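User: Could you go from structure to sequence for me? I need the amino acid at each position, not a summary. Structure tokens:
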């Protein structure tokens, strides 16, 4: 029987740098942000908060699909079924958020955002209660910290917006997702004024570095999964 990671002591989850603690911290941060959005406020403030939530959700999920779920499929009984379920959740969140982003003036926008929050909360529960405990069972603390570092590295260069047409599994998600990550991060930078050349070189740096990092991590994850 799996034990949820939600209330376990950090030491039992491999310490602060482990993938389990990194996931739990992100989930808690997301939960706080969603509650703040639901509490209401000025339109402008809620828009900024919504964009922060979107950036966090999609970079977090991309790194899961790239680093975590391939490993989990190798070590967990029914790993295919478990990861298939969260990939469906990620797809549904992506579809819904893409709809919100495409229709900023639709009167159903707030309703769609709340539906997205319900799906995100379901995804968090499935991960903490059912998927992530398998990583605890399968790996040493040291390995959990290495997986945590790989996940964090991919997250730092992952797409930050919904892309419902991108495959949910590597290598297809990395092949299609990395160039989109560049565009997303360019859009994230848009409000910042500055010389165009400087911004372009930053984007080129992210593109080159991000692609290299993601493909290296995908390769390493495959190799380690066979240890
Ligand atoms: Fe997660
Ligand atoms: Fe997720």
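Assistant: Here is the amino acid at each position, in order:
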């Amino acid at each position: 029987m799996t034990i949820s990671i939600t209330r376990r002591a950090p030491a039992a989850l491999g310490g602060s740098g482990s993938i389990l603690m990194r996931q739990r911290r992100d989930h808690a941060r997301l939960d706080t942000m969603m509650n703040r959005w639901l509490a209401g406020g000025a339109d402008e403030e809620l828009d900024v908060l919504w964009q922060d939530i979107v950036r966090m959700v999609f970079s977090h999920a991309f790194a899961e699909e790239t680093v975590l779920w391939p490993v989990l499929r190798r070590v967990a009984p029914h790993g295919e079924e478990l990861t298939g379920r969260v990939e469906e959740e990620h797809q549904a969140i992506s579809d819904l958020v893409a709809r919100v982003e495409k229709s900023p003036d639709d009167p159903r926008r707030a309703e769609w955002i709340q539906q997205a929050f319900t799906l995100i909360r379901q995804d968090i529960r499935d991960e903490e209660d059912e998927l992530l405990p398998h990583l605890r069972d399968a790996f040493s603390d040291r390995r959990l910290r290495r997986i945590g570092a790989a996940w964090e590295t991919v997250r730092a260069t992952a797409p930050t917006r919904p892309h419902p047409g991108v495959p949910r599994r590597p290598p297809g998600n990395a092949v299609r997702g990395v160039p989109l990550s560049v565009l997303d991060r360019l859009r994230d930078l848009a409000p910042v004024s500055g010389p165009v050349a400087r911004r372009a070189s930053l984007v080129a740096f992210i593109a080159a570095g991000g692609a290299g990092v993601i493909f290296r991590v995908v390769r390493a994850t495959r190799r380690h999964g066979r240890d």
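One structural detail worth keeping in mind: Residues 72 and 78 are 9 Å apart (CA to CA).
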